[in-house]
Design brief:
It contains 22 helices and seven strands. The protein has 445 residues and is α/β, with parallel strands linked by helices. The longest helix is centred in the C-terminal third of the chain and has 22 residues.
């Protein structure tokens, strides 16, 4: 955590957030498939927060990059903790790889943000007075529109419209997740929604109701006398280590703030900080890496590659950085060895960085080092749906070149199973056709 609100408040906040993080890892096991360092930036007041505001109404927000997650807070009083939990739920959903529509993403974050310890249990789902006030005073959004809102919609970004979007999303999610009528089939609904991205179809398939009927139930739910709560048989546990507070150096705080500017697409402000730091102390790998990312986001790939190379020379300890550096080295045969070195360093620092291992295996395949390709890709334990077709195809071709026909057939069948395009299906079929043809010729008298 980096904060301008003082060590006492910072220490109390980071202790609480660490307890919450530990709790979610226990009650929602397997959510963080690829955990990254989480950096909380908490300002003392709105004036300090204003240059880093993500939207005109957000008092806290979550930002994710490939190497780090940020939760940014406008202030750090205990009353602000639910907003931080809300943003942490967004982090968990993102890292779970779930493509959840905005209404449900925000609704789940709201429901869990009401987390409350109670005699050895954790309760979620207490009413949110602010949301209820909006629902009681303003015109509702019809559910067809609500469930179709995207991150670029006015309802998601404009303060005059966002209040009702958030309030109604919370109430709808509360009814589905905790209400007597809808809760028993929520998991069925959720899975269908992930597969179809259609609320209408998902409600019909899971509950046999239309959006109009759901809206009628939602208005009745709003008027209900009883509120169901979610209960977890768990409690907040004290961390085994206490936080250590110390003043951040100017370099450390400037790097953090510039990184925020970069992620917020305020690149001129980030560039100004980096230019000043480069004049003061250019031989810091953190600075060279940060400049590389800014250049990359500005489309300056060669400049980014040069700064990544310099960061590596200066002893970077960031595994993700080496992976990103390797991506920029692709396509240049004269850079094969630096690419392999970068990926090797990435995996040394981050053995869990599956995408680095996948890229290394595909690189070995592309340079026709088939044995290394198979050995490397065999170490990959969990493939994403996007990675699976290319990996299984490369494995099939590699096994074919190595004369391992049964393995080639198995991988070609898997490649076809996970194929996302006609080209991938055709490539897998070619391997299978070749294997069948060669087998038929061997069996002929």
């Amino acid at each position: 955590m980096y904060t301008t609100a003082g060590e006492r408040k910072g220490r109390a906040a980071i202790l609480y957030f660490e307890q919450v993080r530990d709790l979610f890892l226990r009650i929602l096991p397997g959510t963080l498939h690829n955990p990254l360092p989480v950096r909380i930036v908490a300002f003392h007041n709105d004036k300090e927060y204003e240059p880093f505001r993500a939207t005109e109404f957000a008092v806290a927000y979550y930002l994710g990059s490939d190497s780090r997650d940020y939760v940014v807070m406008s202030s750090i009083d205990s009353d602000d903790y639910p907003a931080t939990i809300h943003e942490y739920i967004h982090l968990l959903i993102n890292h779970a790889g779930l493509k959840v529509p905005p209404w449900l993403n925000e609704g789940l974050a709201d429901v869990y943000s009401t987390l409350e310890p109670d005699r050895g249990k954790i309760l979620i789902g207490n009413p949110m007075p602010g949301r209820l006030r909006v629902l009681g005073q303003e015109k509702w959004i019809d559910l067809e529109r609500l469930t179709g809102v995207t991150q670029t919609s006015p309802e998601y970004n404009e303060s005059k419209r966002a209040g009702m979007f958030y309030a109604e999303s919370w109430l709808l999610t509360h009814m589905l997740y905790l209400g007597d009528k809808y809760q028993p089939k929520f998991n069925v609904f959720f899975q269908n929604l992930l597969e179809t991205n259609s609320a209408e179809q998902s409600f019909q398939k899971a509950y046999g109701v239309s959006l109009r009927e759901v809206e009628r139930d939602l208005r009745q739910y709003m008027r209900g006398a009883n509120v169901n709560l979610g209960v977890f048989q768990a409690k907040l546990q004290k961390p085994s280590e206490l936080p250590v507070g110390q003043p951040a150096t100017r370099f450390e705080s400037d790097i953090v703030l510039a990184d925020l500017f970069t992620l917020l697409r305020k690149r001129d402000q980030a560039g100004q900080i980096y230019d000043r730091l480069a004049k003061e102390d250019p031989n810091r790998w953190e600075l060279q890496s940060a400049i590389a990312y800014l250049a990359w986001r500005n489309g300056e790939r060669l400049a980014a590659r040069d700064h990544f190379a310099r960061a590596a020379e200066l002893g970077s300890t960031d595994g993700q950085m080496y992976f990103d550096y390797a991506k920029l080295l692709q396509g240049d045969s004269s850079k094969d060895q630096p690419l392999e070195d970068a990926l090797g360093k990435a995996l040394q620092l981050r053995p869990d960085l599956t995408k680095a291992r996948v890229l290394l295996g595909l690189h070995y395949y592309n340079v026709q080092r088939y044995g290394l390709a198979v050995a490397t890709m065999n170490q990959v334990k969990h493939l994403t749906p996007d990675q699976a077709p290319s990996v299984f195809l490369a494995m099939a071709y590699s096994q074919l070149k190595l004369g391992n026909r049964p393995e080639a057939k198995t991988n070609a069948e898997k490649a076809k199973q996970f194929a996302k395009s006609a080209e991938q299906i055709d490539a897998a079929d070619q391997v299978l056709k070749f294997l069948k043809g060669s087998q038929d010729s061997e069996t002929q008298p």
